[in-house]
Amino acid sequence: MTHSLVGKMKTELNLLKPSDILKFDQDISGIPDIIKLTLGEPDFNTPEHIKEAGKRSIDNNRSHYAPPAGTPGLRKAISNFLKEKYNLFYNPDHEILVTAGATEAIYTVLTSILNPGDKVLIPTPIFPLYIPDTILAKAEPVFMDTSSNGFVLSPELLEETLAKHGDAVKAIVFNFPTNPTGVTYRREDVKALAAILEKHDLFVISDEIYSELTYGEHHVSMAEYLPEQTIVLNGVSKSHAMTGWRIGFICAPAAITTELSKIHQFTITSATTMAQDAAQEAFENGMDDGAEMRVEYEKRRDFVYEEMSKAGFACVKPEGAFYLFAKIPETMIQKSLDFCTDLAYKAKVAVIPGGSFGPGGEGYIRISYAASMEQLTEAMSRIANYAATISEEQGSVQR
Q1: Which of 381, 364, 347, 385 is CA-nearest to residue 182?
Q2: Percent of the chain clearing pLDDT 90 (strictly above)
Q3: Among 20, 95, 110, 390, which residue's CB has the most CB atoms within a 10 Å radius?
């Protein structure tokens, strides 16, 4: 009976498999003394003033349903944050929707805008969640491999892809600073891509969850140039080390937000009230909380980049987020899953296979440097020893 019922479930589920990232992380977790540089989880704790706001919310019995779009106080705080930080203007009453993390935001947007047969342009390598959500909506992901252009989508590749797929293209996804490469889009990049996209009647989904973690140039939002087309996704998970609070948000023109709110309401009703109160405190009185974390991440980035380069791994130096995407040397195992498995068991360091992030990712590994310097120092030492051992073995074979 159970087997026959499973066969009657949603057909698209047959096309999906569990997250490669989570599965690999679980598979290697039992290795003794393993150092895990796998997940995008800040190792900082939520700032004290935010935790206190969450406690006050509980003490004040803020344990009832919030309005589906989010508490008025949080939406107002988000609106002010985006105006002050990124020169974006969203009406808190009609153009902001609070979600259960950026993950729900991605699901809500894609399932709201897509119809069967639609196409979604996805520059890769990229955080893979957009792909199964697109498939669940019976739409087709169209991959644009950016690996030959420093992991930045070029105007030429965008125009070529749009010309090839025509009116079937419903949306394009951007995620920058980018998971897994740490690359971001500079103002000139955003402006050049926007000049092309404004000629097309499509949604621009801009996942900017790492916007507060850029090194050097200030983050520039797609919505600054394409306010009528862009749906901005963001949240407090990375900027304020609040992954477990599960607060994200969507910003878009009022007519679009009204439609998005339908899927949101029918999926979760509303985000957790006391978590929203904590997020309000984050935006009102901790607008720059991410700055201290960013300084530390930049030190870690420089260290990991230098050490991986010494070990023979070619890397694009990250400009944001807390990931480094490293090319596996030709002398080593080239299939990323096999390489990462070998590294985990022999060197006791866990990193994520690049093949998990779409076309252009195979042959690379993603290192999360959201870990202590002590852990990173030991991990880099182990990787260097692993690389040296392989080099010695290669030399013995040649002799």
Answers
A1: 364
A2: 89
A3: 110
